[in-house]
Amino acid sequence: MAGLFSTFNVATRGMSAQQKAIDVTSHNIANANTDGYTRQRATMETTRPFSDASGAGQLGTGVQVSTITRIRDSYLDYRVRAESGTMGLYEGREKFLTELEGVFNELDGTGISTMVDNVFKSWNDLSLSPEVSNTRTVVAQQSKALTDQLNSTYNQLIKLKENSQQVIKQDVTDVNNILDQINKLNQEVISVKNGGNEPNDLMDKRDLLVDQLSTKFGITIDKKSLSGEDLKPTDGGPANSYLIKSDPNDEVRRFSYVNSIVQTKAAVTDSDGNITTDATYKITYYKNGDTSTDANAVNINMTLSPKDYAKLDQGRVLWADSEGNAIKADGTKFEDGDEFGDLEQFTPKTGELQGYMSVQADIDVYIGKLNNLAKGIAFSVNAVHSGQSDATTATDILNFFVNSSDSTSSGETSITAGNISVNQNILDDVMLINVGKDATSGETDGSRALAISQLKYVKLGIQGITDDTTRTSFLGTSYHTDTMAISPDSNGITIGGYFTDIVSTLAIQKQVAEKNVTNYGSLLANLEESRSSISGVSLDEEMANLIQFQHAYQANAKIISTVDELLDLVINGLKK
Amino acid sequence: MRVTNKMLSNNFLRDMNTNLNNLSKLQNQMASGKQINKASDDPVKAAKIMQMNSDINANDQYNANIKNTTNWLDVTDGTLDKVGVAITRINELLISSGNANDASSQGAIKDEINQKVEELAGLLNTSFDGKYIFGGTNGTTKPVGTSDVEGNTALISNGKSGVVGKSVSGTMTYSGNTVSPTDTFKMSVNGTLMTIEIASKITGGTTTMSDAKDTLQTDINTSIAAANIASGKTSTQVGFIKDVTVTATDDGRFEISSPSGTATFYENGVGTTAKDLGLSVGSKDKLIVEVSQGVTMDYNVTASQVINYGVDGNNLMDLMANITNHLSSTDSEEIKKLANEDLTGIQAVMTNVLKLRSEVGAKQNRMESAESRNTDQNLNMIEIRSSIEDIDITEKSMEYATMQTIYLASLQTSAKVIQPTLLDYL
């Protein structure tokens, strides 16, 4: 009797095992298009065999589904995450470099280089008819168009930089959110595994979030017991740089975002222009990058050298403890009054965040170059126009280009592309433009205007201009009063050439970013394909498996009906 | 390798995207007619194109300059031609004056010569494009004029004296080059030439304009007195030069007015005193034009070049004044001069005018060759730019057709591949 009933049990076990397998198959089919889903397999194994004392040896007792496992290759996961980081970097850069290129739109004939040409052309026209006011008006208006365009380009660059900072802020908030979600999932996985089950779907969700995180910055994962994972960024950080820890009591890190850096006290410079005391700044950062409420704002004051300021301005992301307070290298909270060197800034080497940070550095370089261009134009034209190579020499002749916020001669040193403008007195009365050689030359003498128009081809040392360069240090002794000409600097570059240089550099950078996006894109696609090949759901395969399990189920059911007939024979047929 | 449905559709999507990208790029190129629309398409070519655009732009400017200057030179040449005709006529009249012995024929000659003086003044005041072509850098004022001197028309220079004074702390101070004692310059009034020597120093930047003007007045009147004694004229006789008055104007110029006629000043030899004091008029300054990169040339003839035909200040104004004086006088000595010194003078004037005309002619030739070089360069640069920038429409159309075929092929095959599954057959 035990025999027949145990056969029943074997068949029943068989049926339920096949049914479970069908369940797993239907789960796979249902999730065929789910992002990040790994196909699952029901692993069947035989149940404990039973030792038959009556001689045949061990007798099998059926089947059971031992585990439901995910088919996943963790090496491919590691590769995909590494390449996502690089891809994120170049995508981030390409996004902003495309916008930057649009600002300097040069090839359709309306850009700054055409305007510079037109200005010099108008001076040439003026040199032939200096006695009438229309040629002078053309010069004034063309120059104004150029300065307006320089101003607007400068403003667009600044806005682009601000946009990229907004994106960084958004990323910081996103990263913190993802980290919180991963943490929750991590804890759930550990508790499920603790109970002896395989948390397949939870692990899938966790892996998906980790993949998303890897595009933001490079990450390293330590696998811990019970399928827990510890997560930290690959590149540097404070003493304990773990963002996710399996043990919920351990200290983890988060990120905060520096929203504003405002100068409160100017730097002290000595007579040579070297800085003796750095300027003081008030830095406001928001905990966890959440700017929705001012309660999250924290203000700290510190002195910053110009290099430190640039580093903080372009980076903007700080390491923080789990509440969002900025920390030092040893992990203690950063207090007001601590030095900049102690502040832990997050500086990843790959990923979107690094892409946006590096773009900011590039934008700063282009702003600097544009400022140099503006200063170069202003110095050279002013020098020939007023006949003085020193801006501080008193003269009745007006400066042609001035700093719109400070039109004195000292303001000329702080001309930038954002504030360069044509002297308002000249715009009001164009007859004030100095075109003749000196005060005694006749009204049809346009030789000075001719000298200005010839500046187009003079090589000037524009690359060497800094914030402190004055007209005297720029020209040195190269301006000759008698010929009204500036001797070329053998290491210099023409105004048009310098601007073409700026556009070319930008074009090459963008081309590199574009090509890298394409290359890494195809590399990533290959890796994804490999991953899909292993972990993806193939409907055909699932259907074939379904048939297989269906037949097995039917076969097991047949055994039950056969045993049923046998039992009927035994119970009802042996004794009437 | 195990292939899933998702892989097939992902591949298809990726390839379709690539194809569409290529199609879009080709479409852009064909619509704009240019190979590169943004600098990042090809940075090296983009830099070259920007450079070419700048050069072509500059070339257009030079072309306009050359055309303008050619017109100016043509007008100058035509005017000098007419001046030559007038001078030739005066030459004939002087020769014929040798035959005229009575007052009426002399009078007729004199009338015609007065007319010729007017004609010369008119020709030297020709204007073109709003400027007087013989005006040099003072092109908005007539270089010469006429005045009536004792019934005869005299040629006078019309220019204003130059600005030499500047207001320093409220007082007008002389700001030109310093003029030292023993510096000399020449003055001519009504045909009489005299040398003026500066007695006291006029320092640039220090001497006030009023002090300077007093010095000048004293010095000039000293010379005038000496010239009067040398010519033996007394204050009531014709030909006596009266004292001049020198004023310093508010805008920093010396104005010298002589009741005996207009005073003209020029350099003595190689000195620059007259120019320094702003008195030398009919400025010799050249007008300069740029005809190609870094190449400039001067293109004008000034009135003083026409008028000053020899050394030692021989000038047309004095010559014409002498001629009309000699024709009005009854002294046989003076009348003889008509056929001697005056005739020589007029012939020297003629030679000078011819010399100027040949210079103008040479400049016209230079302009012609500059223009043809400019046109050639323009064509070359446009061709080079086109070869870098523009597309070959045939080639692009072929590429487009090919790309379109590829795109359609990919759509068709992918549609056939990703559709069937095992489910269709179960």
Q: Which shape of chain B, going by the Cα principal axes?
A: elongated
Euclidean distance between termini CA atoms of chain A? 19 Å
Number of domains of chain A: 3
The CATH architecture term of the largest domain in chain B is Up-down Bundle
Notes on the structure:
The complex is a heterodimer of chains A (576) and B (426). With 576 residues, chain A is α+β, with helices and mostly antiparallel strands. Chain A folds into 3 domains: 2-66 and 549-573, no CATH class; 123-161 and 359-495, no CATH class; 172-353, no CATH class. Helix content of chain A is 51%, strand content 14%. Chain A is built from 12 helices and 16 strands. Chain A has helices at 2-30, 74-103, 112-128, 133-194, 200-216, 306-315, 352-386, 424-428, 447-453, 471-475, 495-535, 539-573, and strands spanning 40-46, 50-52, 57-59, 63-70, 219-223, 229-233, 253-265, 268-269, 275-277, 279-286, 297-304, 317-321, 401-403, 420-422, 479-480, 485-486. The longest helix of chain A is centred in the N-terminal third of the chain and has 62 residues, at 133-194. Chain A is elongated, with a radius of gyration of 37 Å. The model of chain A has no long low-confidence stretch (mean pLDDT 89). Chain B has 426 residues and is an alpha+beta fold. Chain B folds into 2 domains: 34-159 and 289-390, f41 fragment of flagellin, N-terminal domain (Up-down Bundle); 160-280, no CATH class. Helix content of chain B is 55%, strand content 14%. Chain B is built from 9 helices and 13 strands. Chain B has helices spanning 5-32, 43-97, 103-124, 209-231, 273-276, 303-307, 316-328, 332-389, 393-418; strands spanning 127-128, 131-132, 144-149, 152-157, 165-168, 171-174, 184-189, 192-197, 245-248, 254-257, 263-267, 288-292, 295-298. In chain B, the strands form 6 sheets. In chain B, strands 8-7-11 form a 3-stranded antiparallel beta sheet. Chain B has a two-stranded antiparallel sheet with strand order 1-2. In chain B, a hairpin with a 2-residue loop joins strand 3 and strand 4 (152-157). In chain B, helix 2 runs antiparallel to helix 8 and helix 3 (103-124) packs antiparallel against helix 7 (316-328). Chain B is elongated, with a radius of gyration of 38 Å. The mean pLDDT of chain B is 84. At the A-B interface, helix 3, helix 9, helix 11 and helix 12 of A face helix 1, helix 2 and strand 12 of B.
